[in-house]
Design a protein that fits this description.
5-stranded mixed sheet, disordered N terminus, Nucleotidyltransferase, domain 5, single chain
Length: 435
Amino acid sequence: MQDATNRWDFLTGLELVCRVKLSARDREFFGHVQEAWTQMVRSVVKAFRGGVSAWAMLSWERTLGRKLREMGRLFVEHVVNRIEPEDERELPQHERQVLDGLKERHGVCWSVQTLRKVVAAVDELSTPQRQEAQVERLLGWLRVAEKSSGRHTPVLSVGRDGILLPIRARDKYQEGSTATVAVYDRHQKRLGTIDLGQMPESGQAALSQALTRLLTDVLTRWDGLTPKLNDVTDGGHHPTEYFETVLSLMPDPRRPGKTLPWEWIVDDDHACQDITLLAEALFGSGRAAFAWAKKQRQVLKTKEGGVFRVLHSAGALRTTRGLVGSAEDYFRGDRYLRDRAVKMNYAAAFRRGLPIGSGVTEAGCKTLFTQRFKQPGMKWTVTGGQPILNLRTISLSRVWSAVRDRAWQSYEIPQPLTHTAKPKIKSQKPRKLAV
């Protein structure tokens, strides 16, 4: 951490600074900073040429470090703080866009390597402050939801999903993971969403830990009416494992010895896709398949036990008509619906004001990963992509300003070192021995 904060490139900009247009006064301020830096460097070079002691060079090194941090902090506070929260989602998508913006608007010429060092250093300073800012944002949304009018109880909804990413030195794509935490008011209106993301890793342990800490802190600090707790996923391996091993066993902070009533719902979009598989297997591609699938999707969402009605209709048609399309598709869709039928009571969930779709999480995959990590020709390393992903989660969660302020408060400029004069040791001449 200390090494990262000592770098001048970290202190003179962020990945978003290219979006800030400097006024003439700002350019003059930046010019003074650069001039002061140049004078200090020249002084050090002159001292080197003239020959100085090791103690003097150590003093120079510490003074330079302190001055760099002071000038960098002033520049960042003077310029970067002008970024408005409502513009946080307009992130530049490519390194070249960032570098061109820095050069055009600020006259700052950086290499790709320098930009990556800046991003890594900003991530190192900002990420420790992210969770607290996200917790505060969720608590604020819960307060607004509690005061809203309507017949439903506010909902805290969680979602998880994965997306395949191109990773260097690996033949196959690897699965990155994202998680979302959303708050819905009494009118089933979504007030906001917190995003989390993780580059490909075995078991998705880091994402699970971050999501668990976030939910635990929010539910522990929330002092209002307990919201309905809802988990909407596609029923994949990792989301299922997380619900069974973490959410279903999460302790209730208000009732010792009890667990929180998390409810798992398989999202309706994936269920409807499997109904389409059944329709094409029964009727083939055409109007008949489209009409049957449309009717069964309506039954699935609006009728009690809708998934069982769909399965009964599909089974009856298979017995009387046989299969026109692929038998493999039919049994794949039938198996998906049967295995998760208990989690598909959408009519009851809708009456209780619970979300039944994972569109929020799917959108998180698109904004976090697809727009930045899956451009033509891109390949990533896990260590290189994670800092960018962390900063995108901060910005897309609408907590950039809060994280920035917390980072400045935690960043302390070291006080000037006071050097005490070294005590002079008098050399003693050897005594002459009397002969």
